[in-house]
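Q&A FORM
Asked by: J.P.
Topic: structure of Alpha-galactosidase

PROVIDED:
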Amino acid sequence: VRMELLRGDPSLVYELALPPLALVFWSILGAKALDNGLALTPTMGWLHWERFMCNLDCQEEPDACISEQLFMQMADLMVSDGWKDAGYEYLCIDDCWMAPERDSKGRLQADPQRFPSGIQHLANYVHSKGLKLGIYADVGNKTCSGFPGSFGYYDIDAQTFADWGVDLLKFDGCHCDNVVSLADGYKYMSLALNRTGRSIVYSCEWPLYMRPFHKPNYTDIQYYCNHWRNFDDVYDSWESIKRILAWTTFNQKEIVEVAGPGGWNDPDMLVIGNFGLSWDQQVTQMALWAIMAAPLLMSNDLRQISPQAKALLQNEDVIAINQDPLGKQGYCFRKEDNIEVWERPLSNLAWAVAVRNLQEIGGPRSYSIQVASLGQGVACNPGCIITQVLPVKVELGFYGWTLTLKSRINPSGTVLLRLER
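REPLIED BY: S.T.
REPLY: Here is the structure written out as tokens.
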């Protein structure tokens, strides 16, 4: 494996061979998740990209540009408005935080106008609030927005992030020359982060960029990454949410079994509280992200979010399903008459069930299902207590194994249930 290493003068190009030890290490991999003690339940937090994208214009839009001010304001609100108490812990910077060039020692640096105090100061501020800071870099020569990539600088960048006090790295996959460099780069950065001795959650986009060329090796991916993106970026639209869910159901045989404590499939950000989803569609995203054991990384403006969206995102019963310590991802097990039924095994023999109405015409629809068919036939054998969690909490009471459960679901909406023995 060979990489270009550029230091200082960009005209000087050195070839760096990976140490033999790393190659030996890679050859004896097991199939377990990344063993760094992190992300034992899905990561929760806030990420700027979907809502704020690459807005660099702090003159015209000082409240919406990618700047230390934006992240400090979000940190304040995460504490004062109950987000931290609900479990949202990581405040994550995405692309466009960097200066256009590295410093004289080859290190990444924050844009001096938009982040005048530097990332270490921002990390200290975020930590003072009891939160953790996430940052963004890219495995290739440039980030997706054209800022300096980490190719040839993996060790330097990992140590820089550790020195700054960063707690999570989102590592994108743009501008990588070939699939070998892509895979090796993701592996190498995982090792480099580990070598710093700092606990840094490692969020990969490896399978997303690998899939157009060949089938991702999830044994490797789960060994090196804490969570990984499989599919396209989420948009603030119902079409986008539907595409993510359709892709997930189509590929669930491949991806569900590889998720677990320490490593998760990441269907991308929660866009609840923005502009594009109806109330029922927001309920569907929250319910299905809980069933999928997905990282809950909001991308919205916490300074102007409706009380209804805030209550949904902070719903402790839904978060409890998402964060269930058993760490099993749910799956769609039935699709009929424009209804999908999903289920997820939980700890203490409990189950979560989601009934989703795919129809987008007409009014609410009733759907009946035999209790005996839920939870692989064991959830309610011989009986269970059923609670409707979404769209509103309702104690439905005791159901014996032979009974039928009837739900009423709004168009494009979802009913989320919890079944307990």
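FOLLOW-UP: The chain has 14 helices and 18 strands.
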